[in-house]
């Protein structure tokens, strides 16, 4: 912990109790796909930040595995950390210590010799650094590579079945998203994994679950008494879930054109947000208790299939436009994208959850690349007043409210959970305009994470790596959960194909296609965060 953080911890009462006390046993993290983008942008910076926060165990090593030779792996990773770490400049002492336990094994995932070399390297590090065979294998690779790696690890006896003995070593496998590309492939992948591993050893990652604000959805709902009674069809008129990006496909045109935003974001991140907002309270903070409740919501999602896709979903692609003033090309002009591509870069849908709590409440979900603003949020729109006692203040009232305070007319209460950026929670409510009369205007009560807890909150990958080392799978998806997600998404993708659903267009830098408005119940409007 740096001096300034130390002081902040002492001075800010909200930070009390923040350091995490759960211990991590000495272990090695092995990253498959170590020459790839995720490793340098996210994984190594996350490991470095854990080291900087003194959350790594005394004995720790990180081994990268990939096809390309990397004679300067340590130097490359140092540069990556210096560039992508949330805390800069690089702390030399922390990096030097970490680098002592850093190694690289070159090899093809399909070649048994790769695992022999890895076994030798692990043996050397474990002896040298006084560690036992506690290992987290992080598969930062495409889903097609996963079965070969797991087989290779098991054949080489680098993974053993889990033992209940208190001092037994563990071996766990973290599997990156996308987990399959449809229900059939996800199911097959689960079968292949479970042929070699126990479910307790499998950690299917969805990095949105590692975001502080996503976890806070559960604390907000189940750690307070006053919100949960409002959290249902009795009070909520509709819910909007938005995952918007300013970014385009960022050099991942080939991957993206085969994937599309529904598989890349909605099947995982957006549906996870939906489950966190709508699940029933779990009986305890236990991995299976939490995941059982999430699966129930996924199974209660009303399917959208066949011609229903035309009425309940909108897919679209961006055309050239300007994002924050910079001209950007259209999707079909991006490198490695088919000029006749029908892959969606935007999707909006109107969902229903068939349950006692949510029956009749529309859930509007949208996600897009190259939208006006980077923003992920969940907004609960409450029901309108049954009877209006007070009048809205007329605009331009002398000495009246500034324009940032919104007119109250027809604007019921809204609770917005901002996942990113500007993480926080805002509640919109009506208030009396000062002066004579009883005119009202809407104002916001606004909690900001940055102000309350300091600006540098841990990255999702830090939390999730640490949880995998600790053996806490609560924030990872279970086999039945990931299959239930695909079970909802698959019929939509099939419906689009079979019904030849139109692909609308939207200008890059806008809030998406006008066609998305037809998903809304009359009177509802998409938010412009
Ligand atoms: N990048 C991101 O922001 C995110 C990525 N993900 C997921 O993480 C995973 C990895 O993504 P990303 O890092 O971008 O992918 P990259 O394409 O950048 O990296 C893939 C890695 O896999 C290695 N590899 C592939 N096949 C083999 C093989 N047969 N033998 C040995 N090595 C092999 C490559 O090695 P080499 O290049 O040396 O051949 C490279 O290190 C994907 O599933 C992706 O969907 C998830 C969220 C965000
Ligand atoms: O998984 C993915 O997520 C990122 C967005 O993540 P965020 O944490 O920056 O919100 C997205 O850009 C990428 O396409 C997708 O694969």
UniProtKB/TrEMBL annotation:
Its EC number is 1.1.1.49. It is an enzyme of class 1 (oxidoreductase). Residues 218-522 form the Glucose-6-phosphate dehydrogenase C-terminal domain. GO terms for molecular function: glucose-6-phosphate dehydrogenase activity; NADP binding. The active site is at residue 269. Residues 30-216 form the Glucose-6-phosphate dehydrogenase NAD-binding domain. Coiled coil: none annotated. NADP(+) binds at residues 33-40, 67, 108-109, 177. It holds the Pfam family G6PD_C. Substrate binds at residues 207, 211, 245, 264, 369. GO terms for cellular component: cytosol. Keywords: Carbohydrate metabolism, Glucose metabolism, NADP, Oxidoreductase. Pathway: Carbohydrate degradation; pentose phosphate pathway; D-ribulose 5-phosphate from D-glucose 6-phosphate (oxidative stage): step 1/3. InterPro entries: G6P_DH, G6P_DH_AS, G6P_DH_C, G6P_DH_NAD-bd, NAD(P)-bd_dom_sf. One of its GO terms (biological process) is pentose-phosphate shunt, oxidative branch. The keyword NADP applies. Belongs to the glucose-6-phosphate dehydrogenase family. Catalyzes the oxidation of glucose 6-phosphate to 6-phosphogluconolactone. PANTHER family: GLUCOSE-6-PHOSPHATE 1-DEHYDROGENASE (PTHR23429:SF0), GLUCOSE-6-PHOSPHATE 1-DEHYDROGENASE G6PD (PTHR23429). This is Glucose-6-phosphate 1-dehydrogenase.
């Amino acid at each position: 912990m740096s001096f300034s953080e130390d002081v902040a911890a002492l001075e800010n009462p909200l930070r009390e109790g923040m350091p995490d006390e759960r211990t991590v046993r000495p272990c090695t993290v092995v990253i498959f796909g170590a020459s790839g983008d995720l490793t340098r942008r996210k994984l190594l910076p996350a490991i470095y930040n854990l080291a900087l926060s003194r959350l790594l165990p005394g004995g720790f090593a990180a081994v990268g595995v990939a096809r390309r030779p990397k004679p300067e792996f340590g130097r490359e990773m140092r540069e990556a950390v210096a560039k992508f770490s949330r805390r800069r400049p690089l702390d030399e002492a922390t990096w030097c210590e970490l680098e002592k336990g850093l190694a690289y094994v070159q090899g093809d995932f399909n070649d048994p010799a790769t695992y022999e070399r890895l076994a030798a390297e692990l043996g050397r590090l474990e002896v040298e650094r006084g560690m036992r065979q506690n290992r987290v294998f992080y598969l930062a690779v495409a889903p097609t590579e996963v079965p070969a790696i797991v087989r290779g690890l098991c054949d080489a006896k680098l993974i053993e079945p889990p033992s209940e003995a208190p001092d037994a070593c563990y071996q766990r496998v973290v599997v990156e998203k996308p987990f399959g590309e449809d229900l059939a492939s996800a199911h097959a992948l689960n079968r292949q994994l479970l042929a070699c591993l126990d479910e307790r050893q499998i950690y299917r990652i969805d990095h949105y679950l590692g975001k502080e604000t996503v976890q806070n959805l559960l604390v907000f709902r189940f750690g307070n008494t006053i919100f949960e009674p409002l959290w249902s069809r009795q009070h909520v008129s509709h819910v909007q879930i938005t995952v918007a990006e300013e970014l385009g496909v960022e050099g991942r045109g080939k991957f993206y054109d085969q994937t599309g935003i529904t598989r890349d974001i909605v099947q995982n991140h957006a549906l996870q947000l939906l489950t966190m907002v709508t699940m029933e309270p779990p009986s305890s903070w236990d991995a299976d208790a939490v995941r059982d409740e999430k699966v129930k919501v996924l199974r209660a999602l009303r399917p959208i299939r066949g011609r229903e896709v035309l009425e309940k979903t909108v897919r679209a692609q961006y055309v050239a436009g300007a994002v924050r003033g910079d001209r950007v090309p259209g999707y079909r002009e991006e490198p490695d994208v088919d000029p006749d591509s029908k892959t969606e870069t935007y999707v909006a849908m109107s969902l229903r959850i068939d349950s006692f709590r949510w029956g009749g409440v529309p859930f509007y979900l949208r996600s897009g690349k190259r939208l006006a603003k980077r923003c992920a949020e969940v907004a609960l729109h409450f029901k309108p007043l049954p009877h209006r006692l007070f009048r809205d203040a007329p605009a331009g009232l002398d000495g009246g409210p500034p324009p940032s305070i919104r007119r109250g007319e027809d604007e019921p209460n809204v609770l917005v959970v901002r996942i990113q950026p500007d993480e926080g929670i805002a509640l919109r409510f009506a208030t009396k305009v000062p002066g004579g009369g009883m005119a009202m205007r809407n104002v916001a009560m606004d909690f900001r994470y940055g102000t309350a807890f300091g600006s540098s909150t841990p990255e999702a990958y830090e939390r999730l790596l640490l949880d995998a080392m600790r053996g806490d799978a609560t924030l990872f998806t279970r086999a039945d959960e990931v299959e239930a997600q695909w079970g909802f998404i698959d019929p939509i993708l099939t419906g689009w194909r079979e019904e030849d659903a139109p692909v609308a267009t939207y200008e890059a830098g806008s809030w998406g296609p006008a066609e998305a408005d037809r998903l809304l119940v009359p009177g509802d409007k998409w938010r412009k965060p």
